[in-house]
Amino acid sequence: MSKIKKSIISIFFLLLSVLFLIANVNISSEFYTRFTDEVPVRYKAKIIIEDGNLNFSPGQNAILKLRLVNEGSYVWNGLEPQPVMLSYNILDSNLKAVKSDCGNIVIPGEIYYKYFVDVDVPITVPNAKGSYYIEFNLKKGNKAVYVSDEKIKIEVK
Known about the structure:
Helices cover about 25% and strands about 45% of the residues. The protein is built from one helix and ten strands; from the N terminus they run H-E-E-E-E-E-E-E-E-E-E. By secondary structure, it is of the alpha+beta class. Strand 5 (about 85-90) and strand 6 (about 95-105) form a beta hairpin. It has one helix spanning about 5-40, and strands at about 45-50, 55, 60-70, 75, 85-90, 95-105, 110, 115-125, 130-140, 145-155.
């Protein structure tokens, strides 16, 4: 085979490789754009309470069993120097804070979009009887990166 034919074949395969690379970059870019359009928030959680009994005695120490579903685009990584943590606030019936920034539980492992983790959250119930709400937050270091819209109602009897 002549040198010219070998050069033409080499150029052809080089151009074919470049076209293949461009096509893959375009496909990847479109996938990422669609993914970030579908999941526009960085940190978001769906919080599911596993135990339905939310009646407590004044000052009681209790454990809430929660399932946290990652609904944001960022991975929750508990292994980083500033891990993602779950904290909570206890609010009175007027939604005013009674206890703030409690818990600070490191979320174990790496939790990707739509994956979940089960967490036991120790709480100390307020001493006064009444209705209260628990508001959950995701934190990265000392900064709240997500505050749940949903609040869990508890009764102190």
